[in-house]
Design a protein that fits this description.
215 residues; mainly beta; 0% helix; 34% strand; rod-shaped
Length: 215
C-alpha cells in the first residue's frame, strides 16, 4: 500500500469539489484519528435524522445512554402573587417561571407560544379560594389560539356544597396540536354568584401551568 503525504488537498483550477475514492470504495479512518470540521458537514447523519443547528447542543447522550435535549421547548410556571376577586373570563397571571428551556413562555402576558408546529403536552392545576356556592359553575381551562382546550374536565357546580369552600382544586392535562406561533393561556370563568374567587400566588405545588413539545 502506497502512502500519500500532503498538508492540503485543493480542487484543480476552476473546480469546487474534491472527491475521495469511487462508488463502492471503503474509506478507512484508523482508531485514534480525528476528523475536525470547521465548515458545514452534510451527508454524515444517519438516515431519518436531520439538523440545521450551527452551534450549541441540541441532543446529548451520556455514557449511560441517557438522552437529553437541552433546548427542547418545556416550561413550568406559577403565579408570583395572589390574584384576587377574579372576574369571569380572565387569564390567570402565571408570571413566575420555575424553568423555561427555550424561552417560549412570556411572563408579561402569561402566554406560551409554540416555536414549531407539533404536538404539545399541556398541563395545569389551579387552587381556587373562596368559591361562591351561588355560582352556577366555576371553570378553569386552557385556551389555545386554534381552539379552546381542556375545559370540560375542569368544571364544577358549587351549588351542591353546604357553604363556600375555603379552597378547591381544578386541573387538566391534554395533548394539543399546535402550529408554530400558536399560543396557550389558562382561563378562569364562572357564571352567577359573586366575584370573590382568589388564586394564591407563589405556590407551584397547588397552582401551576406547564407544557413541552412531544413530537
Amino acid at each position: 500500500m502506497s502512502t500519500l503525504e500532503v498538508n492540503k488537498i485543493t480542487p484543480v483550477s476552476g473546480g469546487t469539489t474534491v472527491q475521495v475514492g469511487e462508488s463502492g470504495d471503503t474509506i478507512n479512518i484508523p482508531a485514534g484519528a480525528t476528523i475536525a470540521n470547521a465548515g458545514t458537514a452534510s451527508g454524515f447523519a444517519p438516515t431519518g435524522i436531520t439538523s440545521a443547528m450551527t452551534s450549541g447542543t441540541g441532543l446529548s447522550i451520556d455514557a449511560n445512554g441517557h438522552v437529553t435535549k437541552p433546548l427542547q421547548p418545556a416550561f413550568l410556571a406559577t403565579l408570583g402573587a395572589t390574584q384576587s376577586n377574579i372576574a369571569d373570563n380572565t387569564t390567570l397571571n402565571f408570571n413566575s417561571e420555575i424553568f423555561d428551556n427555550n424561552a417560549d413562555f412570556n411572563t408579561a402576558n402569561y402566554t406560551f407560544t409554540a416555536p414549531v408546529t407539533g404536538k404539545y403536552f399541556i398541563s395545569f392545576g389551579v387552587r381556587l379560594d373562596s368559591v361562591d356556592t351561588a355560582s352556577d359553575y366555576v371553570r378553569v381551562r386552557c385556551i389555545t389560539s386554534n381552539g379552546n382546550r381542556g375545559g370540560a374536565a375542569s368544571i364544577f357546580d358549587p351549588g351542591g356544597l353546604s357553604g363556600d369552600p375555603t379552597y378547591w382544586g381544578l386541573g387538566d392535562s391534554l395533548l394539543c396540536d399546535m402550529d408554530a406561533n400558536d399560543t396557550a393561556t389558562i382561563n378562569f370563568a364562572y357564571s352567577g354568584g359573586s366575584q370573590q374567587v382568589d388564586v394564591p400566588g407563589d405556590n407551584p405545588e397547588q397552582t401551576h401551568f406547564s407544557a413541552f413539545l412531544v413530537c
